[in-house]
Design a protein that fits this description.
This protein is α+β, with helices and mostly antiparallel strands and 681 residues long. The chain has four domains: 60-175, 2-Layer Sandwich (Beta-Lactamase), CATH 3.30.450.20; 253-378; 391-541, Histidine kinase-like ATPase, C-terminal domain (Heat Shock Protein 90, 2-Layer Sandwich); 563-677, 3-Layer(aba) Sandwich (Rossmann fold). It is built from 16 helices and 22 strands. Strands 1, 2, 3, 4, 5 and 6 form a six-stranded antiparallel sheet that branches. Strand 9 (224-231) and strand 10 (236-244) form a beta hairpin. Helix 6 (302-343) crosses helix 12. The relative contact order is 0.06. This is histidine kinase. It catalyses: ATP + protein L-histidine = ADP + protein N-phospho-L-histidine. Residues 563-677 form the Response regulatory domain.
Length: 681
């Protein structure tokens, strides 16, 4: 029967896991399609810009030759006296020119600059050359002629560009240049290593290529192609093509999507695991309640049943502790790496994804914390600290935190205070802040326009501070049939598939229980489409100390030169903590167990030790005991995903100065480290 029951408990989490996996793969596949589409668009845009640059350069160089022609025509041929100088300037200023020559009206080469290397062409009669008809046609039309890529009489290949010259009403010949655009084209694409380029003339001859273009091996959608008309009279067009320079061009771009896929799969697994563990925990709670009922009926077996109940309670505590550790440990790595990436130099397009990952991870952590809080409340293990604080100042701090969220939604948060102010009381500031935060977050979630008004009143009566807080919003309101159940666990105003607001339905239940444990009262009034009003009343003993609030201000923190030892067998946790400390300027070493930690502290002068609790060979508790035998001054901070009071008390009992629960935030380290490293200036 137990096996069948266990299988039934797995069905729902497995179904959730399957659905989440399908969603993750659909989103991942869509991201790949978007990535491909963006890359194709990038190629098209880059190709269009580069093609314009190429063809503009060709026009500019041909224009230089035509300017020489115009100078000869304007001077009726007298400009021939300056031929050598002008031709030399063109060759010097335009690296695409190999030579400039003069063909007379009978198509005989009369002059060539430079003469060296081209002497064989002087006096050459081109009337029998295949390009003679084309040359004559352009001479009659008085337009510039451009040949295909042509082998030269004096060796090599080039484009022959003829500019017909007329003066005194007679055709005199043509200024002709041999042009090779390789050098200026190379200068244009010197920074374009990730793309390959080729340019062909009208006959399909490739006269320029860069980065080994492979058009036959790359899909057509990744090749940009355009044409450029170089000779309108003959209809000659050159073809320009741009494509990726290597065949695995999409691999690097896909790499980031695999990270998001892995994160999505991990998040799906953690979510379904959390559901399974929670459902298992609820079943254990039900079994425990059934056992307690049986104890009342079975007086003859009271002792046996009592021992069984204690064993079940211990099992449940160990289960919650273990699940907390197993879920928080990977969350520590996830949230830690997110903070490290957000503080690093990374593409702006990825920052948005990191923000979404950060929000999702913290929502999952919040859900874990809520479930653990419920377990402590319902098992009677909730404890309260005795902090000295000002309830009004703490309320203002919480409002300042959520004011930005409200403003982003176009909402306001106003505070009205009456009576005495800044009176310090004795109580658990964390539990007080949790109550206010849960109510304020609930109001922000269900308010779309208008805002939130908070009224605060405090009165001193018989050495007790009595406070009354009203939080009123202009949100959607609560239906009458749900108003009585608003503080029940897993109860939400919206239900079903069409709900617009996220939430587990645990926040107000925890709030109600904490207020009850503090001896206060909380109730709610609401009207649909008008808003909701929460009324909270609490009492705290007044502090014997000064009632003035210390202004801590922002101190300049210099942690450079500090030396820290990290003791953890989890490589990922070590990487996250090392990188976080590095961002604070702190040097750190690491070892993987308690035995190595003891030797490291003996050998080196560390300012602080981060000690993981669960490790092989020697755990953190035993290692701390051993270190305290020979070093009583070094600061030791325990690290664990176990958030139970028993674990914290045990850690401090063996000599740890403090106990940080995973995940550890960058802000938490920055706030607490100066007190242990003694480097505040």
């Amino acid at each position: 029967m137990r096996l069948i029951s266990s299988k039934r408990e797995l069905i729902f989490p497995l179904a959730i896991f399957t659905v989440l996996i399908v969603i993750v793969f659909v989103l991942w596949n869509n991201s790949l399609d978007t990535l491909k589409s963006n890359y194709v668009s990038e190629i098209q845009n880059t190709g269009s810009l580069r093609a314009k640059e190429f063809f503009s350069l060709v026009k500019y160089d041909i224009k230089s030759l035509e300017n020489l022609k115009h100078r000869i025509e304007m001077t009726n041929g007298s400009y021939f006296d300056y031929w050598e100088r002008d031709a030399g300037l063109i060759l010097e200023q335009n690296p695409s020119f190999r030579f400039v020559e003069w063909l007379d009206s009978s198509m005989i080469i009369k002059k060539v600059t430079p003469l060296e290397g081209n002497k064989a062409a002087v006096g050459l009669d081109l009337t029998k050359h295949p390009r003679h008809p084309e040359w004559r046609k352009h001479a009659r039309d008085s337009t510039t002629n451009i040949t295909p890529w042509t082998k030269l009489h004096q060796g090599g290949s080039a484009f022959l560009v003829d500019a017909p010259v007329y003066f005194n009403g007679t055709f005199k010949g043509s200024v002709t240049a041999g042009m090779d655009f390789t050098v200026p084209f190379d200068e244009l694409v010197a920074d374009l290593d990730k793309y390959a380029i080729q340019v062909e003339d009208e006959n399909g001859t490739i006269f320029y290529s860069k980065n080994n273009p492979r058009t036959s091996e790359i899909g057509k959608e990744f090749i940009f192609t355009t044409t450029f008309e170089v000779d309108a009279l003959d209809g000659q067009k050159w073809r320009f093509s741009l494509m990726p320079s290597h065949l695995n061009f999409m691999a690097e771009r896909k790499q980031s999507t695999y990270i998001y896929l892995a994160f999505g799969l991990l998040l799906s697994f953690l979510t379904s695991s959390l559901i399974y563990f929670y459902r298992s925990s609820r079943k254990k709670n039900k079994d425990l309640n059934d056992t307690n009922l049986k104890l009342k009926d079975l007086n003859t077996s009271l002792k046996t049943e009592q021992l069984r109940a204690e064993k079940a309670s211990k099992s449940k505590t160990e289960f919650i502790s273990n699940m907390s550790h197993e879920i928080r440990t990977p969350l520590n790595a996830i949230i830690g790496f997110i903070e490290v990436l957000r503080l690093s130099e990374i593409q702006s397009s990825l920052q948005e994804y990191l923000s979404l990952m950060d929000i999702s991870s913290k929502k999952l952590l919040l859900l874990v914390n809520d479930i653990l809080e419920i377990d402590k409340i319902e098992s009677g293990k909730t404890t309260f600290r005795k902090d000295i604080f000002s309830p009004l100042e703490e309320l203002k701090n919480i409002i300042s935190i959520y004011r930005r969220t409200a403003e982003e939604k176009g909402l306001y948060i106003d505070l009205n205070q009456t009576g005495q102010s800044h009176v310090e009381a004795v109580g658990d500031i964390g539990k007080y802040g949790q109550i206010i935060t849960n109510i304020l977050r609930n109001s922000l979630k269900f308010t779309e326009k208008g805002g939130i008004t908070i009224s605060y009143k405090e009165i001193v009566v018989d050495n007790e501070l009595s406070i009354a807080i009203t939080i009123k919003d202009s949100g959607i309101g609560i239906p009458k049939d749900k108003l009585k159940t608003i503080f029940d666990r897993f109860t939400q105003v919206e239900a079903g598939k069409a709900k617009r607001h996220e939430g587990s339905g645990l926040g107000l239940y925890i709030t109600y229980k904490l207020v009850e444990l503090l001896g206060g009262k909380i109730d709610v009034t609401s009207q649909e489409s008008v808003g909701t009003e929460f009324h909270l009343s609490l009492k705290f003993p007044i502090s014997d100390g000064s009632s003035t609030i210390k202004n801590t201000g922002q101190e300049s923190i210099d942690l450079s030169g500090c030396n820290v030892l990290i003791v953890d067998d989890n490589r990922v946790n070590v990487m996250v903590l090392k990188k976080t400390l590095e961002n604070l300027g702190v040097h750190s070493d690491s070892v993987s167990n308690g035995v190595e930690a003891i030797e490291a502290v003996k050998r080196n002068d560390y300012h602080l030790v981060f000690m993981d609790i669960h490790m092989p060979k020697m755990d953190g508790l035993r290692a701390t005991k051993e270190i305290r035998k020979f070093n009583r001054t070094i600061g030791i901070i325990g690290l664990s995903a176990d958030v139970t009071k028993e674990a914290i008390d045990e850690a401090k009992g063996v000599g740890m100065n403090d106990y940080f629960t995973k995940p550890i935030s960058f802000d938490k380290l920055r706030k607490h480290l100066p007190g242990y490293l003694f480097k505040i200036s």
